[in-house]
Design brief:
Strand 1 and strand 2 form a beta hairpin. The chain is 67% helix and 4% strand. The radius of gyration is 19 Å and the shape is flat.
Length: 191
């Protein structure tokens, strides 16, 4: 839910600022074709209302991607800001996932979108071992696999920030990105 609000705010800002940005050829035909196929899949879903809700969220993410393409083509500074926000959000999600796996239940962050988690709740993603059932961390995402995809994007954004840094910059930035990378990898392992 929080990610949806964040994405909606960025898309709204992009729509308001779009006239001030230099025109960029956006892959509109590909985006429309992708959303059309996803909409057809939603209509054949046995749970149509849930599928249509997820299609709206998917559409928001496609528009967000188009916004990032245009913003990035106009200013590399904005790409650095967006990559930094993705890394910070990824570290926060990784910390929540690590806490969930360590505690083996939710952390009480329901207002942020965290699901109720416990090894004995049906529908919670678990790993069955001879020692018992252990939950997989999902952060505030609805499933650990979605968190894993987000953390993969955050790891890639962190790597890009790390590689693009110049030797004249302080080593604190590099050290911070390495610590963030370690937390992101630990969070990925928790999913």
């Amino acid at each position: 839910f929080a990610l949806d609000l964040f994405a909606t705010a960025i898309v709204g800002w992009w729509l308001a600022m779009r006239r001030r940005l230099a025109p960029v050829r956006l892959p509109m035909a590909s985006a429309v074709a992708f959303l059309a196929v996803a909409l057809l899949a939603a209509f054949v879903s046995p749970v149509r209302t849930v599928a249509l809700t997820q299609w709206v969220r998917l559409g928001l993410m496609v528009v967000l991607t188009l916004a990032f393409v245009q913003i990035g083509a106009n200013s590399r500074r904005w790409l650095v800001v967006v990559a930094g926000v993705v890394v910070v959000a990824g570290v926060a999600q990784a910390a929540i996932a690590i806490g969930q796996v360590t505690a083996q239940h939710d952390l009480g962050l329901l207002i942020l979108g965290e699901s109720r988690l416990a090894p004995d709740i049906p529908g919670v993603a678990k790993i069955d071992t001879p020692a018992g059932k252990f939950i997989r961390g999902s952060g505030t995402f609805p499933h650990p696999n979605i968190l894993a995809a987000f953390l993969a994007v955050a790891i890639r954004a962190g790597w890009w920030l790390f590689v693009r840094g110049s030797p004249s910059r302080t080593t604190w930035r590099a050290a911070g990105l390495l610590v963030a990378g370690a937390l992101l990898l630990a969070g990925l392992a928790a999913t």
